[in-house]
Structure formats: C-alpha cells, structure tokens
C-alpha cells in the first residue's frame, strides 16, 4: 500500500502538517520555500497536489472568492489521515537512509 | 483592494495555457501573487514573473483544455501515421513521390508565372506607368516622332508626366580595355517618372549635358564599385563625359526595347534639348513612357489619347508611317511581357492538370487501403468512436503524407526552376524575378493542402460512411461498385488532362521542325558576324570606307575565310533600319512609296552570307551612291508586270532611307528573299544600297564572314585579324549565324521543352494511375474470375474484355480532352509555325499515343487473368 511519494509530493504533505485549514496554492508554496529554501512553480505544485488527491492522501475544499484573486475562489487542501500515514512511512524510510550516517556526517 | 489586476493580455495567455478544471484556482493564485509583487517591486517585474509562471504551466500541469485534448488526439493520430509508414513503406514512398511530382510541377510553373506576369515592376507605383507606342497600318508597334511626342508631352491630360528614351551604342575609352556600351538617351523627366534615384552620386541634370549615369552592372564590372567614380571624366563615342552617378542594383529602368534584342543599357545620358523640340514627323524614333495621373485608368487615358490623336491627325499632312497614327497606351508590365501572358497562363492551367492527375492517383491508392481498413474503422465505431474522430484521423494521415510530398515538391520545383532558367531564351523578360519566394512557398502550401483534401477526403468519407454492423458483414460487392465508379472516373479524367499537354508538345515539335527546315535565303552555318567600332573612323566617307576595306582585307587573309562583307544590320541580329522605295513609274503617277528594309552593304556581303543573286550582280568596289539591289519580294512588288527578274535589272527606283531625302538609283541586281528579321516571319521587302559611299555616316557597322569550316572555331582568328588590321578596333556582339538562328528559335525550343517535360510527367502519372486501377480491379475480382474460368470461360477472352472496357474509358478520356487540347493549342498562339492549333494530324497522333500507352498500362497488370488457376482462387 505505501506507494512511493515523489519529492514534491512529500514536501507538499510536509507543508500541510504544519499548516491549518488555510493551506492553498499560494500559502503552500510559501511554506515550502520557507522550510526548504526551494521555490516551486504553481503548475508543478498543482500537479503534485492533484496526484495526492487522486490517491486519497489529501482532500479539497473550495473556498470563497476574493477580490485579491480577481473574484476567483481558492482551492483549500486538507491533509487526510491516509496522507499523514504516507508521510510517516516516507519519513521512516528516510530515517533509515540517514541512519547510516553518524551524527557528524561520517559513515562507519 | 490593493493594486490593479495583471494586464488583460497576459491573463488571456495564461488562461489559454491552463487546463479548464484548474484554471480558476491557478489564475487566482497567480493574480494574488501578482498584486503582492506589484506592490513590492512594480508592475513590470510582477508581469514578468506572472508570465514566467504561466508559461511553465503547460510543461508541468499540462496544456489547456481543448488544446490538451486536441494535442493528445493528434499525437495519437501521428503515431498512427508512423505505423502506416513502417507497415507499408512502398506505398508511402509512392504517395509522397507522386504528390511531390504534382506539387513540384505546379509550383515550378507558378514560379515562372509569378515572376513574369504577377510580380509588379520595381518602380514607384508601377501600375501607373505606361508605355506609349504608335500604331500604323504597316507597323503595329512603332516609336513616336518628335512632333507626336511633343503633343503627348504638352497636351495630354491623363498623364502626370511623359518621358522618352532612345538607344545606340558607343565606344567607351579610358582606363582598361575599350568597351562598346549600349547607351540610353533620355529626356530629363525619365528617372523621376519611374521613381528611380541613383544609389551613388546624383541624377542627370539638364545643366550638365555631358553627364553620364552608369548602370549598376557597369559600375561593378568596370570600375570595381568604386564610389570615387563620380566626377570621373570618360571618353564615350568621341565625346567627353562626366560620370554623375550610379543606378541602383535592384531597380531596372530598362523598359522594353524595340526591334529585336532586348538591351539593358550600360549607361544613360540626356538627349540634347534640341532633339525633342519642334513638330518634325519625318522619323519615328522615340520610345515614350508616361505616368498616369492619379485616378485615371488606362482605359480612360486611352480614350482621351485617341480623341487627341484624331484631332492631331487632321492637321498632319505627312508623317513617317502614315497620316493615320494611333497611339496605344499599354501598362508597362504588359508591354514588357507582350504576348507571353496568355501562353504562360495556359501552361499553368495545363500543369495544374498534372497536379490533379497526381492527386487522383494518390486518392485511388488510399481508397484501396481504406477498403482494407474498413473493418478496423467499423470496429472502432462500434466501440463508440465518433465518425468525426475517424475522419479526422484519416485526414491527419493524408495531411502528414501531403506535407512530406509537398516538401519533396518544393525541392523538385527548385531544381526544375533552375533547369528552366538555364534553358530560358535570352529575351525572356524579367528573368530576375523568377525566384522561389514566400509567395511561391505559400502557393506550394495551398496546392499541397488542396491535394491533401482532395485525396484524403474522398477515401475518408467513404471508408467511415457505412453503418458499423453493415461494414462488419462482408459486403464487398457494394463497396466495389462505388470504388469502380471512382476508378473509372479517375481513368477518364487523367487521360483527358494528359491529352492537351501531349497535343501541345506535338504542335511545338511540328513548329520547330518546320522552322528548322525553312529557307532563310542565306547560309545558316559557317557564318560569323560581329559589330566593330573604331575610336576614329576618319573625317569622311572615303576614309571610313578605306578602314573598312583594311579590315576586310585583314580578315580575308585568315585561312578558312571564304568571303567578308560589311552591313549596317545583320540578318536575325535584331535592329530595324527602314526607308521607302518606289519604282520610277510609281513616282511618275505619284503612288505611295512602299515601306522597305534598307541595308547598306559592302560588295562581299552576299557571298559571305552565301545569298543567292537571282539576276544581275552584287555591288563592286567602284559602285557609287546611285545603284541599288532589290530582293525578290521588293522586285515583284515594285514591278508587278515583269515576269522575269532579269528585266528588273536596269530599272530605276526612288529610294529614301529613314530621315533622308529620296533619290534615284539604278537596280543592278536582284537577290533571293532573305529572312532578315526573324526566322518565322516571311521575308520583307528589302533594298540594298552600297555601304562604302556612306561608310562614315553609319551608326552600326557589322562584319559578316563566310568560312569554309566550323564557324565557332574561326572566331579567335577573325578577332585577331581585325585587331591587327585596325588598331584600337573593338569587337562586340560576335555571334555565329547558327547562334543567331538558335536565339531566334529559343522561345519556341523553351516552350517545347517545358511541354515535353510536363506532358511526359502527366502521361507517366496517368499510365501509373491506369496500371493501379486495373491491377486493383483484377485483384479484387480474382474470385469472380476464378469461378468464371472454372465454369468454362477462357482467360484470354476475359483479358480481352478487361482491356476492351478500359480501352473504352481511355477513348472517353481522349474525347473529353480534345477541346482542352485545342485551347492549349490556341494558347501557344504565335509560337506555332505553319501549323493550326487544332491540327488534326497532331491531335490524332496524340490520341493514338495516349491510347497505346493506355492499352499497355492495362495489359500489363491484366495479364494476371491469364494465369488464373480456378482451384487456387476458389480455395482462398
């Protein structure tokens, strides 16, 4: 069951764990940039979020239109329980990867 | 609310690029960020970032809505095309090649048509520039007299400005080798009228009568494109002239020359103002050009000029060419192109026939395939595919094949145009405009597209038409009938389209054969001609004659030279020189003198040309002014009562060369008729006068040398002999008589080659098409044939029946093609020589050829019927 997450998908999920219900395109990208220094394009993020939604790891909620957005609505992204589990599985794998390294970065 | 939204055009672009389902959210995000960034760093940067983000969307999220569907659909279709190519490479190659040939042929002829007929001349507003030619009963296209020119220049309302030109040759001395130049003499308004300004230096100014304007070609060739040439003093024809400027390379101020060879002038100068003053009407020599006033059409200008000339003619008592002069207003481009227009368009129509034949061949090929794929199509439709989608797939396939064929066609057209240009007759106008430019490529694209639709649509619609259930059942016979109708139509159409080209080829072959056999009245081979210029011919006629005799003696000494003479014009060399002549009796009864060609010749002229003297003698060195020779045509016209030409010798005639007073001369000889002007025109009346007594007054002096072996090989020795005999002599226009004859026939040869090329292509394609039709038919009916053989039919009879029925189709096509063939024949117009456009023998021969080709193309694939093994076919 635990299929592999792409790096961007993992980052998106990670951002969502830190964010509340106000998470949507703009804010998720800001969070990722703040946490990793990596700037993600709108298109890539939306694609990643779509894949997550298809796999049931997140769900959407359409928000209110605002004038800032030229009268367009926001698409809020909420972390689903399956998404949390997938992220944890991914984190476990990553800890094993890192575990071979000593605290000071050396191996052996 | 803070700030303004992103620019409308930017959001439209991004909107197009975004998938519909996400569009609102993505655009909203981007706008939010835009506003925030605009506040921080300004609208410009914010817009840039907005666009950058937007442009990445298709590569990440995926392309926009319907575009996305279309793209994925098309990529599927294109993959299908790839499968087709891999699956049947032979078929694809045949299709691409056939389209290539069709599109290539049409495109190459279009290139020629565009360059010559469609492309506007490179003046300012070229449609407003017209040529003004005089028309008299004797001469349909004559230069104007000074008197008439001034009437047009002063009183003509429809023209904003009028100018005139004239040309001669002169020797250019100074600097490198002396060179004989063609010089254009113009009135001051000439270049302004055309809107051509010098690219270096200034134009011709009436203040400086000795100013000289160089052609671009001369400037590069002789002065190495040196800008300092302006101000240089040169010796032209014995006069000191100052170079004032150089004309641009890309604008051609040479409008149609008159009387033979088209000359591009090497240099231009002003006519002395006195030349165009007054109302002299004794000689027509001005080539007039005018620019129409704004808003005046050619038709209206013509009407006004007609009225004007009617008024003028009433006051004119005497004029070169006659009292009834009509002035024709002809758009400059049409004048340049003359009668070629109709011929070219007809040729173009014929070659579109080639394109149609190619397209129908391909249609037939694809139709066969569609039959095979009918089941596949039916299954897909049964599973829910829309007919539109299937048709689209087939059209994409056709489109891809057509594109490949079109590209091949453009390459082919390029090669063909190069070939045509190489073979083009030297007087083909506007050769420099015949290039493959954007217009031509656009035409190729349209031709390819039309072809694709033609051969793609019919099979696509037929293949996807039937009800899926119906098609899955094996209804081969119904499909066959429709296919058969189409095949039969194709055969008839292709034959009908090929016949005109074949007939045209036949007509040209006969014309050229006739021309090659025509009796010129002088030797076609082993004659060399040249123009010779000396810086100084001496102060009198006697001195000039002495120099001529020096040259003659020098050349006569060259081994292999039979005879040499001088003349003021060379037969077939272009250039008119006319006058009038009448017999003493006609003068007595005040009859109108007859227009005749006037030739000043030296004694050796006739033997050099191997021209026949039918009565009397040629000139001798002692002959003075008052003798003349007539050609047979003139002799018979002037003395209609005499039977025997010998009786004409001794008669007196009154001769007046152009611009000169009439005087009496005694006829000392009669020559055979000579085709002085062109090979195809009948000989005109000619009167020969002795050259030596007028040697110093000639504008042109041509040497004519008869040799006893190959003319071309004799040229270097002759050149050398002339140089030795007359130091400082410059030879120009050195041409052998066969070259002159070839040049005279060049236009026809060219047409013949073109017709032969495209006629051959058309016939070949039609033969291939016919072959394909019959082969397919035989294959499809193999089962039926097998049955019939099994129950007792003889294969040979079945074969004959097939050949017979196809033969009927070919005959039908021939019948349909007769009328277009006559149209093409008419289109060839003046190119035909001694053969009618609807010549029955040619039509019959073309029809017979087509029939033979058709029957052969049928018989080859139909032979398979003979090998029918009923057991085999029934088993399958």
Summarize the helices and strands and which ones pair or pack.
The complex is a heterodimer of chains A (108) and B (876).
Chain A: H1 7-18, H2 25-36, H3 42-54, E1 58-62, E2 75-79, H4 81-99
Antiparallel strand pairs in A: 1-2
Helix pairs in contact in A: 1-2, 1-4
Chain B: H1 8-17, H2 20-41, H3 43-60, H4 65-87, H5 89-118, E1 129-135, E2 144-145, H6 146-155, E3 159-173, E4 179-186, H7 190-194, E5 200-201, E6 211-214, H8 216-223, E7 233-236, E8 239-246, E9 267-270, E10 284-292, H9 298-315, E11 326-331, H10 332-337, H11 340-382, H12 387-423, H13 438-463, H14 468-472, H15 476-517, E12 527-533, H16 541-556, E13 561-567, E14 578-583, H17 584-588, E15 594-601, H18 605-609, E16 613-616, E17 627-631, H19 632-638, E18 652-657, E19 663-671, E20 686-690, E21 702-707, H20 711-725, E22 730-736, H21 737-780, H22 782-790, H23 795-828, H24 840-862, H25 870-875
Parallel strand pairs in B: 4-9, 6-8, 15-20, 17-19
Antiparallel strand pairs in B: 1-10, 1-11, 2-10, 3-4, 3-7, 3-10, 5-8, 6-9, 7-8, 12-21, 12-22, 13-21, 14-15, 14-18, 16-19, 17-20, 18-19
Helix pairs in contact in B: 1-3, 2-3, 4-5, 4-12, 5-11, 5-12, 5-13, 11-13, 11-15, 11-21, 11-23, 12-13, 15-21, 15-23, 15-24, 16-20, 21-22, 21-24, 23-24
Please characterize this protein's 3D structure.
The complex is a heterodimer of chains A (108) and B (876). With 108 residues, chain A is mostly helical. Helices cover 52% and strands 9% of the residues of chain A. Chain A has helices at residues 7-18, 25-36, 42-54, 81-99; strands spanning 58-62, 75-79. In chain A, strands 1-2 form a two-stranded antiparallel sheet. In chain A, helix 1 crosses helix 4. The model of chain A has no long low-confidence stretch (mean pLDDT 86). With 876 residues, chain B is an alpha+beta fold. In chain B, the strands form three sheets. Chain B has a six-stranded mixed barrel. A six-stranded mixed β-barrel of chain B has the order 14-15-20-17-19-18. Chain B has a four-stranded antiparallel sheet with strand order 13-21-12-22. In chain B, helix 2 packs antiparallel against helix 3 (43-60), helix 5 (89-118) packs across helix 12 and helix 5 crosses helix 13 (438-463). The longest helix of chain B is centred in the C-terminal third of the chain and has 44 residues, at 737-780. The N and C termini of chain B lie far apart (81 Å). The model of chain B has no long low-confidence stretch (mean pLDDT 85). Chains A and B meet through helix 3 of A and helix 2 and helix 3 of B.
